[in-house]
User: Which sequence fits this backbone?
């Protein structure tokens, strides 16, 4: 087993809220994302644009073509926002095998009823229930992580339901606080992973927060097995 450094919540220019430095073209920003991840010694990078998979595949393409030393594992994903009761800020990160084809993964957005003009939007809420979103991803063998559900009281109120839906891994702002102070009756006897990632909306933010995990190899299968 080996310890690997993870940042599994990273955006690209495919997210409308991405902060792109004016001196860089979009193409150079993608290269800058890869270079920053390598400089910060990230082993596994998860790309999770809001309701879009374009950035993940563009980044994979750039990395495959321009980097001879493949030290970085890039996992394509997507950040989907759905609703639990009155809370319409339930953020779910879904990750897929890096060999999943673009067309197949792009079809996920159609099946989740994300219209093309909302690709990249952080304001869109899919017209599916939380349980439907989970079932959808699980049928496609995606790795699921909830995102920043401890950030506000509004979101924190529905975290117990997310936990009880057998989502094991959670990207939280304050992992120690969640572990020690939040909902011990909910957390008790459950094997949960409270991690923290950067939620980077610029290349410079990558690895500003990261987590480490022991895996037998830096592959999607090993990561999914450890976190699901």
Assistant:
């Amino acid at each position: 087993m080996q310890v690997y450094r993870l940042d599994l919540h990273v955006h690209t220019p495919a997210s409308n809220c991405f902060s792109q430095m004016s001196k860089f073209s979009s193409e150079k920003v993608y290269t800058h994302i890869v270079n920053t991840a390598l400089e910060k010694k990230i082993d596994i990078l998860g790309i999770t644009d809001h309701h879009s998979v374009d950035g993940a595949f563009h980044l994979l393409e750039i990395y495959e073509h321009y980097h001879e030393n493949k030290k970085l594992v890039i996992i394509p994903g997507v950040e989907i926002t759905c609703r639990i009761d009155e809370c319409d800020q339930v953020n779910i990160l879904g990750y897929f095998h890096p060999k999943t084809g673009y067309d197949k993964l792009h079809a996920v957005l159609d099946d989740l009823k994300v219209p093309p003009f909302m690709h990249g939007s952080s304001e869109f809420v899919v017209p599916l229930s939380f349980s439907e979103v989970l079932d959808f991803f699980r049928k496609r063998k995606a790795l699921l992580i909830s995102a920043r559900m401890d950030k506000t009281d509004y979101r924190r109120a529905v975290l117990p339901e997310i936990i009880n839906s057998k989502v094991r891994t959670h990207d939280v702002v304050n992992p120690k606080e969640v572990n020690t102070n939040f909902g011990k009756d909910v957390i008790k006897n459950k094997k949960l992973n409270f991690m923290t990632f950067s939620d980077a909306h610029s290349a410079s933010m990558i690895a500003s927060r990261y987590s480490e995990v022991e895996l037998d190899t830096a592959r999607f299968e090993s990561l999914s097995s450890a976190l699901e």
About this structure: The chain has one domain: 2-227. Strands lie at 2-10, 44-50, 73-84, 87-95, 143-147, 169-171, 193-195, 211-215. The mean pLDDT is 89. The domain at 2-227 is CATH 3.20.20.140 (TIM Barrel).
